[in-house]
Specification:
The protein is of the alpha/beta class. A five-stranded parallel sheet has the order 3-2-1-4-5, sandwiched between helices. It has one domain: Rossmann fold (3-Layer(aba) Sandwich).
């Protein structure tokens, strides 16, 4: 079973039914529901999602969305080692570095994001949702 880190942009594609991106996100989350793939996020992802969803939909709806999401994904811890690696990394964005090192530190197979350019310094595979689905299904 593939263990994948899912970036917040992919989750927002699903939750906000973003045109042009929803279908791939929905297919990915269907694989999570079926148990074909195991999904992981960090607390940063949940905090970012809450912030965006609360602004767009209100607190109650934001929390309900996150509770539903939690049934499908595991939340990885971010510790001092993860933080120190992120602080000393070649990543331009500290948050991306934190997410990346959270995935690496937990031996995940890949990271799924629509912002692949943000992970140029990655040593694990980084896929768009469509790329991941094509690999898995092909």
């Amino acid at each position: 079973m593939k263990k994948v880190y899912i970036d917040s942009d992919v989750i927002l594609d699903l939750l906000q039914k973003r045109k042009g991106f929803f279908d791939d996100a929905a297919r990915l989350f269907t694989l999570l529901e079926k148990g074909t793939v195991r999904g992981y996020v960090s607390p940063l992802v949940l905090a970012n999602l809450y912030y965006i969803l609360r602004k767009d939909n209100g607190q109650k709806a934001a929390l309900e969305s996150l509770l539903r999401l939690r049934m499908l994904v595991k939340v990885l811890a971010i510790d001092e080692k993860t933080t120190d690696l992120a602080l000393s990394s070649a990543f331009k964005d500290f948050e991306d570095a934190m997410q990346y090192y959270s995935a690496v530190g937990n031996s995940l197979d890949c990271l799924i994001t629509r912002n692949k350019k943000d992970y140029k310094a990655a040593d694990i595979p980084v896929y768009s949702p469509r790329e991941f689905l094509d690999i898995l299904e092909g």
